[in-house]
Amino acid sequence: MKDLSGAAEILFSSRALVVLTGAGISAESGVPTFRGAEGYWRNYRPEDLATPEAFSRDPALVWEWYSMRREALSRVKPNPGHLAIAEMEDLVEDFTLITQNVDGLHHLGGSRKVLELHGNIWRVRCTVCGMREMRKEPFETLPPHCGCGGLLRPDVVWFGEMLPQEVLEEAYDALGRCEAILVVGTSGIVQPAASFPFIAKGKGARVVEVNPEETTITSVADVSIRERAGKALPAIVRIWKENIA
Ligand code: BJW
Ligand code: ZN
After folding, report:
1. Is any ligand 1 atom within 6 A of the Cβ of residue 157?
2. Which structural domains are found in the chain, ordered by start?
3. Which atom of ligand 1 is nearest to 101's Cα?
4. pLDDT tens, 28-40?
């Protein structure tokens, strides 16, 4: 409780706030995280599925993995953690949500502006003509193709690929002006997102972490809440609102 009020105090006393999320925010919606005993990668090696080389080698295999995830995601809903983050957007003057997730659950949870660092699993991109579109329906055959005949790929960011430039610039701008950063449900292993809390801290921001496990971010955190996001975040928002009432 002391930690929760400490965290809430840091957040509500900040005029500019960045929230950085990872797979853990969606865990309570039933979406597996990547790493760990129940993670997506307990049965696969990341380099077999989440790299451009894997896609060139076997696009059908990579698409099967994404189709399976898209199918599972079509059945899940945002959880109280996503909803609490959406509420924060109305509580602070300068708010930026940066997510590593590709599942679209922040939008479904009511967040209006979301910087999607690693793309979106519901969007496809043509590897030949560059066409991009949201495509929620399942594909009849895998791998799917564009009207131009080119191979379609999920519009997500794989290892070794650049993150979308505009999104990255907006993220760095927000990190440069934030007074606090709330880091939720990420192992802090994948760059460049893993460096964001360190960048913000270096510019004087305070760091709050919500994660049941210790992570690489813990060393830089002013407050670490060892709790599930779906429990901790609504509690933080409750304390925050009591302090503006
Ligand atoms: C809960 C919870 C609950 C559970 N509540 N919490 C510098 C040094 C070394 C290497 C590099 C470097 N810079 C770049 C690299 C290479 C690479 C990289 O970082 N490699 C590392 C593995 C070392 N990075 C890249 O290639 C990036 N591109 C880039 O930097 O371009 C320039 C460049 C290229 C090459 C060389 C140098 C520079 C691109 C990274 C793309 C990542 N893509 C993926 C797949 C996206 C598509 C898809 O979904 O299929 O993104 S990988 C995967 O990991 C996914 C995630 O967004 C990302 C992060 O994972 P996340 O979210 O942290 O999940 P988990 O599972 O790790 O953690 C979950 C956490 O939740 C845990 O801590 C739990 O405890 C917690 N939790 N329940 C709260 N209820
Ligand atoms: Zn095309």
Report:
1. yes
2. 1-31+78-118+163-245 (3.40.50.1220), 32-75+120-156 (3.30.1600.10)
3. 57
4. 999 999 988 778 7
Best of 25, 29, 102, 159 to mutate for ligand 1, by most ligand atoms within 8 A of CB?
159
**pTM for the whole thing?**
0.97
The 10s digit of each residue's pLDDT in 208-242 is 999 999 999 999 999 999 999 999 999 999 999 99
Of 84, 77, 99, which is closest to residue 31 (Cα–Cα)?
Answer: 77
Query: Is 118 in the active site?
Result: yes
Q: For 230, list phi and psi in degrees, rounded to 5.
A: -65, -20
Mutate to test the pocket of ligand 1, among 53, 190, 215 (most ligand atoms within 8 A of CB): 190
Cβ distance 197 to 142 under 8 Å?
A: no
